[in-house]
Amino acid sequence: MKVSQSQEPVVRACNLRRDFGRGEGLVRAVDGADLDVARGETVAVMGPSGCGKSTLLHLLGGLDRPTAGEVWLAGQRIDQMSERALADLRRSEVGFVFQAFQLMDELTVLENVELPALLAGRSPRSARNRASELLERVEMTQRSGHLPTELSGGQRQRVAIARALANEPTVILADEPTGNLDSAATTDMLRLFDTLRASGLTLIIVTHDERVAATADRLISMRDGAFVDDTRLADGTTRSLSKLIGLED
Amino acid sequence: MQQEVLLAMLAKEPAQGSRLRARLDGALGPLGEAINAGHVYVQLARLEKAGLVALQASAGTPDGPDRKVYELTPAGQERVTEWLAEVSWPRPDLAEFHLKLIAAAAAHVADPLSIIDAQRRELRRRLRDAQRAVMAEPGRSDVALLLEGVVLRLQADLRWLEACEEAWTERMARS
Amino acid sequence: MGRLLLISRLAARDVRRRPAQAALLLVVIAAAMAALTLGLVLHGVTANPYAQTKAETAGPDVVASSVGYGSDQRRFAALADTPGVVAHGGPFPVAWPVLTAHGVTADVMAEGREQAPAAVDQPKVLQGTWVHSGGVVVERAFANALDLHVGDQVSVDGKAFRVDGIAVTAAVPVYSQVCFYGGCSGPPSRSLQFDTGLIWLTQPAARALATPANPLTHYLSLRLADPASAPTFVQKHQPPSTNGPAALTSWQSLSAAAATLVSQEQNVLSPASWLLCLLALATVAVVAGGRMDEQERRVGLLKAAGATPSLAAIVLLAEHLMIAVCAAAAGLAAGWLAAPLLTSPGASLIGAPGSPAFSVPIVLLVVIVALAVATASTLVPALRAARVSTVRLLAGTARPPRRQAWLIRLSSGLPVPLLLGLRLVARRPRRSLLSGASFT
């Protein structure tokens, strides 16, 4: 039975394992994870520090090689791919937002955001236009000419997100994207994610923040490298909100 | 809801009950829907009895409740000033849940971890609603700010629940 | 197009971010390339210009001076008819006056020549004209030393002459070495006080300079049927030595004389340039080693943004290649400017260093070496780009510093600075080795 394109999971992991170190110092960062993420889904991954969330994300995005298991991205198996083929696939399909931003300090904000587009072979002008557009979306236009070192953590985070969107990816993998943002900025970011979701993007977000998790379709809890929970969140009703603030006598 | 809120609203100028109601709705948005329609008038009547507000003298016959115009008395004025300077804050009420867990564990009638899990799911559901409501509001409105407060407190409660889960997992493992 | 812009932008920015490091690399590679250039250029200066001069001036295979023949002048003249000789020039009269010009005094060997070109040893005029009445033609190295130009006035034994031309010859060693062959072949009664230079003038003028105390000598140039046999010829026909200079000199000796001028410099420069090259390599290695982590991280960042490993490597390379090309150009220029300073005595020969000796192969070789050095310094990160996962590259040091338990124990008894130093060295042996190597 042929599975239609839209039903094929856009990200898939089978029995994924990632070990670090050797012998006595062996650490199993990811231990037998199975995951299927459908197109357009938003998945939040939560768990205590050191439970392997970031490692999982790196594996799913082709930034790291698993010790064992399979990873499928956009229908292609990536755990055995060469670095070159991985680069090509990632460039067109994946937008990765790192916890440490990983911006290039010698380039300005605008140049950082247009970097993936230039790497993909777009003309300088079209890359620049796209970058300006994206910076507007994350409200960083007035800092276009600054260097990353001149920005605050939250500003850098927004630039990193803009950069991840440069090549119109299918999947966004975000590692603590609101970690450095204050409450208002977090809300703005969640609004942005909402619009991305509306345009059909698949989002996998590793987060500590319950608010971010609250906006996801699916919530996966991790502990010691393994999934312990995988639930879908149900909706409540607006009326119950007022109960929370004690307005009734 | 505190009576002092209505007093404060009258501090600038006298107003009709309907206007006060409208102001409240404006400030509370969707959360104000639960407030009873007649609630404001009941409160105003109480305040009048306590001597903190007075009906403005108006020429002509007293009309229906909608047309009454209230104003602050000097005592009311004083109360407003007092209230604005107060720093009391609603206290967190976590004792009940805390004791629930201990009781369940002691009596072996329920698994504390499942209780925590269920509570977490419920709070997450509420958080989802609150977060959605925040995002539905335009930018930096008054309502958005209030909803933000709701969200953040739920977030804090969920953090505590996570801590509870860690602690109780350990406790169950030891016993 | 976009990629090209990106590569140049990244290369330029990185240089701007670390100008001191880039400058260091540039200076070091340039110095090494300058030394390499000089070495290569001087290497080519030895026999070649002499051979070229000999070819262009119909240079002689054997020169004969009448001084060595003492009283047996007939034998001297009969040399021209010796079997094996196919052509001759002269005998030409030679006077030994003193020349004064621009306040400087020098002894000169003044050859009297005809207007018509000689069959053997016709000096090549580089500026001005050949001998005329009232004028002298000055040998080039001598002219450079005295700063003489065509049209200048000089005084020869008190008589005024004007400089008509500047020429080169293969028959006489270059200025300041004129007295090399056969000692100074001036008349025995003449003691020379200054370095001797060479001029040509008309034969009447030369004869007029002779005095009883300072008589004329004669000089004869011969061409042999077999030029390679010149030393044998010289040996065979050399008159018995009086306590004077040798009468006959082969062209091979003259060539060797020319070579000794530059070989001294070369003797110093060759090892110097090798050492400089080694130092350059060591410095580059240390600088590269120190930057390796940073470069790896850069590669990681690029890959994280979507670059293929080869593109990331090209970005690294572009910057270093830029530096290398600039360094090669600077080194070549420095070598080009410095070479005449070191070999100006050789200016008497056609093909002075700085022009034709500076050939395309030399330029290519220098550029290639500079590029190779630059490439080597980016090799490791570039290779790792293709093999190592992006996350590992981003993390920086892939290998955690090593910890040697036995060394810790051993060093625990030492004074604290020594203890720390030793443990730090042991943790990163490769880097310590590179730093140590550059100190030697």
Give an account of the 3D structure:
- The complex is a heterotrimer of chains A (249), B (175) and C (440).
- Chain A is an alpha/beta fold and 249 residues long.
- Chain A has one domain (8-232): Rossmann fold, CATH 3.40.50.300.
- Chain A is 33% helix and 24% strand.
- Chain A has a six-stranded mixed β-sheet, with helices on both faces.
- The longest helix of chain A has 16 residues, at 183-198.
- The radius of gyration of chain A is 19 Å and the shape is globular.
- The termini of chain A are far apart.
- The mean pLDDT of chain A is 88.
- Chain B folds into two domains: 3-85, Arc Repressor Mutant, subunit A (Orthogonal Bundle); 95-174.
- In chain B, 66% of the residues lie in helices and 5% in strands.
- In chain B, strands 1-3-2 form a three-stranded antiparallel β-sheet.
- In chain B, helix 5 (95-107) runs antiparallel to helix 6 (112-136).
- Chain B starts with a helix and ends with a helix.
- The model of chain B has no long low-confidence stretch (mean pLDDT 85).
- Chain C is built from 14 helices and eleven strands.
- With 440 residues, chain C is an alpha+beta fold.
- The longest helix of chain C has 54 residues, at 251-304.
- Chain C folds into two domains: 2-50 and 258-439, no CATH class; 85-224, no CATH class.
- At the A-C interface, helix 2 and helix 3 of A face helix 1, helix 8, helix 9, helix 10 and helix 11 of C.
What's the quick description here?
By secondary structure, chain A is an alpha/beta fold. Chain A has 8 helices and 10 strands. Chain A is globular and about 45 Å long.
